[in-house]
């Protein structure tokens, strides 16, 4: 059974993951509006992954007999100065998410709640991958540059990172959901 402090933090994380999904969906829409179709596809797919992160937390809470609560959602920004700014904001956001996960892990460890601590290890590893991914995209943008045909090549590169058929099976439990 989860403590009320852990319930609160897990619910906050559920809402943060949903915000991440909204943010990336909105950014993907901005990219599509700017004819950056590869980035739009990549961000739309990433928004789906964030929803999977949210569902995984929700399932875990339900499995422990707790009630997951979806709060109201702040609207994400819709205007961006450039594609570089979009990915800078994503990298900054992911670093914030990592900080939140770290605080959640710290709470589970100090209570202690070893089941939740183990459950959260997936998010620790995931945040490492997320930061690595978006730092790599930013490095590519800086390497290629956005002048001339640069934007075209960046869009193509990022579009190729989008994989097909990544939709998650929502019927699986929190502990065995596909990564
Ligand atoms: Fe982007 O990892 Fe969840 O939020």
TrEMBL record:
Locations listed in the record: Cytoplasm
Keywords: Cytoplasm, Iron, Iron storage, Metal-binding, Oxidoreductase
Binding residue positions for Fe cation: 17, 50, 53, 94, 127
GO molecular function terms listed in the Swiss-Prot or TrEMBL record: ferric iron binding; ferrous iron binding; ferroxidase activity; identical protein binding
Record-linked PROSITE patterns: FERRITIN_LIKE (PS50905)
Record field: catalytic activity: 4 Fe(2+) + O2 + 6 H2O = 4 iron(III) oxide-hydroxide + 12 H(+)
Keyword presence, Signal: no
CDD domains according to UniProt: Nonheme_Ferritin (cd01055)
SUPFAM superfamilies: Ferritin-like (SSF47240)
The EC number(s) this enzyme carries: 1.16.3.2
This protein's GO CC annotations: cytosol
Pfam families: Ferritin
Domain Ferritin-like diiron: 1-145
Gene Ontology biological process terms in this record: intracellular iron ion homeostasis; iron ion transport
Main location: cytoplasm
Broad enzyme group: oxidoreductase
Assigned protein family: Belongs to the ferritin family. Prokaryotic subfamily.
Function: Iron-storage protein.
Protein name listed in UniProt: Ferritin
Native source species: Petrachloros mirabilis ULC683
Underlying gene: ftnA
């Amino acid at each position: 059974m989860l403590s009320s402090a852990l319930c609160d933090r897990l619910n906050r994380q559920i809402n943060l993951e949903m915000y991440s999904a909204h943010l990336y969906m909105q950014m993907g829409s901005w990219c599509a509006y700017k004819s950056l179709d590869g980035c739009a596809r990549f961000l739309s797919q990433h928004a789906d992954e964030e929803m999977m992160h949210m569902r995984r937390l929700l399932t875990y809470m339900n499995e422990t007999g707790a009630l997951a609560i979806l709060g109201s959602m702040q609207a994400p920004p819709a205007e961006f100065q450039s594609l570089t700014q979009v990915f800078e904001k994503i990298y900054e956001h992911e670093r914030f998410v990592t900080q939140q996960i770290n605080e959640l892990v710290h709470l589970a460890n100090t209570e202690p709640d070893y089941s939740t601590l183990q459950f959260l290890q997936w998010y620790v590893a995931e945040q490492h991958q997320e930061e690595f991914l978006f730092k790599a995209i930013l490095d590519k943008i800086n390497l290629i540059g956005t002048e001339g045909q640069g934007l075209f090549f960046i869009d193509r590169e990022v579009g190729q990172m989008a994989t097909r058929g990544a939709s998650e099976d929502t019927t699986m439990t929190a502990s065995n959901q596909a990564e």
